[in-house]
Amino acid sequence: MNDSWTIGVIGGSGLYAIDGLDQAEWRTVDTPWGAPSDQLLFGRIGDVRLVFLPRHGRGHVIPPSELNVRANIDALKQSGCTDILAISSIGSLREDLPPGHFVVVDQFIDRTFARPTSFFGTGMVAHVSMAQPVCERLSGYAAAAVTAAGGAVATGKTYVAMEGPQFSTRAESLLYRQWGADVIGMTAMPEAKLAREAELPYALIGMVTDYDCWRDSEAPVEVSEVIGQMQRNGAVARATVAAFVNALPAARDPSPIDSVLDFALITDPARCDPTMLAKLDAVAGRVLRTMDRAQPA
């Protein structure tokens, strides 16, 4: 069994590159779900392999609702990733999470509605648990890495994912606060769900750029404000990735998330759609091939 780390890094608004990559090479990865957001950047930091994907494409050309998240996750899985560290800009719904703060997310509320949310469908149905939607182990490394990079970090927070691309109304922002959400963004869902279906442990570092629009005493968020704070956050984010990688144990112990599909598939093997199975090869081939071998000759 492979006990080495290959970290897929999904860089969102404010993180479009990784510093200090050895043997860096951009490569095109094709998927049965279409094209990912961009080429993937392969390289190493020390003994750890990294595969970097700019979530919105280089130059930030793809809006949240048009991200081909299934292709992004499939491409990272095809590329040998064992785990995913996602980084994105977020708005704050709490006074004690000011712009410039970093948040390691613990839970999600999914308010998106215009995006494919699963690899599975007619011909192969699966239901994965999302009760604990992030990897506790990775999240712990992520929080420690932000601190090591000189950033202020909060943990155990809830992220509400909105559809966008418009920012919230004030009524929505106040409602999300009442629900117990701490931060808001447009990209973590269905990204975290699809990572789980692909058996990839996932952690999310959010970089606070603004206070959304719930504060009566403050002007509503504008893109210019977000961009300025993104640029200020970017240096800490890049240092965080390096600190995260350098702190990983030499050997990767197995995670329970590595095998969640063992308990998720529900379709009768005799009724599976071969076309769907072919599309699922990268993300679910491990368990699908085992299922096929178990059938009578």
Task: List the main descriptive attributes of the protein structure presented here.
alpha/beta; 297 residues; disordered C terminus
Mind telling me the C-alpha Rg? 19 Å
Q: Please give the share of residues in helix.
A: 25-40%
What is the highest CATH level, the class? Alpha Beta
Instruction: List how many beta strands DSSP finds.
Output: 9
Proportion of β residues?
15-25%
Architecture, according to CATH? 3-Layer(aba) Sandwich
Span between termini: 28 Å
Strands of the biggest beta sheet: in what spatial order?
A: 5-8-7-6-9
Number of contiguous helices:
7
Estimate the mean pLDDT confidence. Answer: 92
Structural class: alpha/beta
What oligomeric arrangement do these chains adopt? single chain
For this structure, the CATH topology is Rossmann fold
Order of helices and strands: EEEEHEEHEHEHEHHH
Main beta sheet: 5 strands, mixed, barrel
Question: How would you characterize this protein structure?
Answer:
This protein is of the alpha/beta class and 297 residues long. The protein has a single domain (6-293), classed as 3-Layer(aba) Sandwich (Rossmann fold), CATH 3.40.50.1580. The protein is built from 7 helices and 9 strands, in the order E-E-E-E-H-E-E-H-E-H-E-H-E-H-H-H. It has helices spanning 69-78, 136-148, 170-179, 188-197, 223-246, 274-279, 281-293; strands at residues 6-11, 22-27, 40-45, 48-54, 83-92, 102-110, 153-161, 183-185, 202-210. Helix 3 (170-179) links the parallel strand 7 and strand 8 (183-185). The relative contact order is 0.20. Residues 293-297 have low confidence and may be disordered.
